Amino acid sequence: MRKMLVALLLMLALTLSLGQEKALAEADCSNVKINTGSATVVTQLYENQCAILGWDSGMITTDMKANCCGPSVTIRVNGNDWNKLVGEGKLDGFRYVRVSKSNEGAYQIEPRQVTGGKPVTISGADFFK
User: Fold this and answer.
1) Of 72, 75, 65, nearest in space to 127 by CA
2) Has residue 33 got a pLDDT over 80?
3) What DSSP state is assigned to residue 50?
4) Is the pLDDT of residue 5 over 70?
5) Cα angle: 15, vertex 20, 21; to 5 degrees
6) N or C: fewer beta carbons within 10 Å in the chain?
7) Burial 57-95 (b: 16+ CB within 10 A, else e)
8) Residues 47, 66: Cα–Cα separation, whole Å
9) How would you class 21 by CB atoms within 10 Å of its CB: exposed for 0-12, middle for 13-18, buried for 19 or more?
10) Where are the beta strands (DSSP E) in 7-129?
C-alpha cells in the first residue's frame, strides 16, 4: 500500500512539473507567445532558446513573441571583424537578430539576413527558413 501511494505521488509530481515549460511542438512554431515576468525580459531576450522577436509590456507580466522553429544562440562579435566579414561576402545568407537600445531605454529587435554583402531586415517568420 505504501509503495502504491509513493508511486501515485511521484506520478502526480512528474505530471505537474512537466507542464511548467512551454511546448516547442506548437502548431505554429514561428509565432509563439511566452509569458514572463516584466523584470526578466532582458534575461529572456539573451537566454531563451527561441528567437525573441518582440514583446508587449505589462506592469507585472510580459507576452514575448518568439520563433521556436529551431534553436538559436546568442553571440557577441567584434564590430571590426563583423564589418570585414560582411564586406568580404563571407556572411551571405547569415540570419541574425539585431538588438538595439533607444535613448529612451526601449529595446528594438530586428530579424536580419546578410544578402549580397549587405544586412537587410527580414520578417520573423523568415528567420528559420
Assistant:
1) 72
2) yes
3) S
4) no
5) 120
6) N
7) eeeeebebbbbbbeebeeeeeeeeeeeebbeeeebeeeb
8) 13
9) exposed
10) 32-37, 51-56, 61-67, 95-101, 107-115, 118-121
Q: What is the amino acid identity at position 92?
A: D
Reduced to 3 states, what is the DSSP secondary structure of residue 37? strand
Helices (H) and strands (E) in the chain — how many of each?
3, 6
pLDDT tens figures, 92-126: 999 998 888 777 777 788 899 999 989 999 988 78
Tell me which residue has cell 560582411: 86
Enter the pTM of the model: 0.64
- The two most distant CA atoms of the chain are separated, in Å, by 71
* Cα–Cα distance measured from residue 93 to residue 121, given in angstroms and rounded to the nearest whole number: 12
The residue assigned the cell 507580466 is 61
CA distance 29 to 27: 6
Are residues 102 and 108 in contact, defined by beta-carbon separation less than 8 angstroms? yes
